[in-house]
Design goal:
Elements: H1 3-7, H2 20-23, H3 25-38, E1 41-45, E2 54-60, E3 63-69, E4 75-79, E5 94-96, E6 100-101, E7 108-109, E8 115-117, E9 136-140, E10 143-147, H4 156-166, E11 174-184, H5 188-195, H6 201-204, H7 206-211, H8 217-220, H9 224-235, E12 242-244, E13 252-258, E14 286-292, E15 297-300, E16 305-314, E17 317-327, H10 338-363, H11 378-390, H12 392-395
Antiparallel strand pairs: 1-10, 2-3, 2-5, 3-4, 6-7, 7-8, 9-10, 11-17, 12-13, 13-14, 14-15, 15-16, 16-17
This protein binds FE2/S2 (inorganic) cluster and fe (iii) ion.
Fe (iii) ion is lined by residues 194, 200, 205, 348, 352.
């Protein structure tokens, strides 16, 4: 019986998880394996791969993937591990290349992952047997997701349901305006759990709480939602909802919620920050929470989008990565101010780094006894359900 199986008796639905969930090296290792193989992970955006030879890499725990645009066959995703003796193949975060050449013994791979050349391998060696191992890849409105396992969770039907609610933002025609990383000395699950609930938003996020009604359910029913409906309809912003939490399928969530009166977008003053996304005809004063797979979160305002991910680098080290997107033709200085655009989620991410760090410090105590979840922490319960289904073989 492994660590999670031993641990499960301590898990009470409706309560926080027990200490070992965030402190056990065995659970950490099985987490990485399970999530890498059995969930979809957001790795980048098509705007990073415009020309043939453009590539990005993305690391997840000890795993690493290369995503590259080939001359003819579009975008592919490959394990960043040489098929000779296993060296990390591509060492850069992004760039443009004709081939990938291993830094160890110079085996050389095409942009399609095929092995092109390996020296002195003798007769009977067939390069066709040693292409890079590929991963499943999906491109949803420009957002790229990979899954390394043979049987990825169902996602296509879910994306079909999401598409009409996302298409008007034309996210494929955005570009990255800024990326920031906030390293936090905490287990990745504490980082993602923090993102899954807004119970902490009032007490911990002064700036965010001024503009985002989600900080308190009472505000969500105070007529703001009806007003948003009307403004969204006028501005061409879709307002439907999607919730999917089925075992064996990628978790999906989408909902637009109102900002407080006077806020067109997530800005310091409430004023617009950047040109309207896609085909929108105006600001509706809302924000769309979108989750595609349990690990990948996006917040879409009328004029920009934020993407978040929580990347494990060690048992109690996580990189919170925040990515700001604007319309592809928007220019810094002319169409938006870089400092104004990034102000809110920089401040909010610094708050989150602090509270997650303190959370881990407390959970590391042997006297931590898991307490009950608030009604506002329903997202954490959904994460636990997903966790138990992704880790099902370990738990059975
Ligand atoms: Fe890559 Fe030897 S490990 S060429
Ligand atoms: Fe937060």
């Amino acid at each position: 019986m492994n660590a999670i199986a031993k641990l499960r008796p301590g898990y009470r639905p409706g309560y926080a998880h027990v200490r070992e969930f965030y402190t056990s090296p065995d659970i950490y290792e099985s987490d990485i394996r399970d999530y890498w193989n059995r969930s979809w992970i957001w790795v980048g955006h098509q705007s990073q791969l415009k020309k043939p030879g453009d590539f990005i890499t993305f690391d997840y725990g000890p795993e690493s993937v290369i995503i590259a645009r080939d001359r003819d066959s579009g975008i592919g995703a490959f394990q960043n591990v040489c098929r000779h003796r296993g060296s990390r193949l591509c060492l850069e975060a992004s760039g443009n290349t004709r081939v990938f050449s291993c830094p160890y013994h110079a085996w050389t791979y095409e942009l399609t992952g095929q092995l092109r050349r390996a020296r002195e391998m003798g007769e009977g060696f067939d390069p066709a047997d040693y292409g890079l191992l590929s991963l499943h890849l999906r491109n949803f409105e420009g957002l790229l997701f990979v899954c390394a396992g043979d049987e990825p969770p169902e996602i296509d039907e879910g994306l079909r349901r999401l598409r009409p609610l996302v298409a008007p933002f034309d996210l494929g025609k955005t570009r990255i305006a800024h990326t920031a990383t906030y390293p936090v000395p905490a287990n990745w699950k504490l980082a993602i759990e923090n993102y899954m609930e807004c119970y902490h938003c009032g007490p911990a996020h002064l700036e965010f709480a001024r503009s985002h009604s989600i900080k308190d359910p009472a505000h969500m029913n105070a007529g703001l939602v009806d007003k948003l409906e009307a403004r969204s309809r006028a501005a061409g912003v879709p307002t439907g909802e999607v919730t999917r939490n089925d075992p064996g399928a990628a978790t999906l969530f989408l909902r637009r919620y109102p900002l407080f009166e006077g806020y067109d977008t997530g800005s310091r003053t409430g004023a617009p920050l950047a040109p309207l996304l896609g085909g929108l005809s105006g600001f509706d004063g809302g924000a769309t929470d979108m989750q595609i797979g349990i690990l990948n979160n996006f917040l879409i305002y009328a004029d920009h989008m934020i993407g978040y991910r929580f990347v494990p680098t060690a048992l109690q080290e996580t990189r919170i990565e925040v990515v700001w997107f604007v319309r592809e033709d928007a220019e810094a200085g002319r169409d938006y101010d870089h400092g104004d655009l990034t102000w809110l989620w920089h401040a909010t991410s610094l708050d989150d780094e602090r509270i997650i760090r303190h959370n881990q410090q407390g959970v590391n105590s042997h006297h931590f006894v898991p307490g009950p979840l608030s009604e506002m922490e329903w997202g954490i319960a959904a994460f636990y359900d997903d966790y138990l289904s992704v880790s099902a073989d370990q738990i059975r």
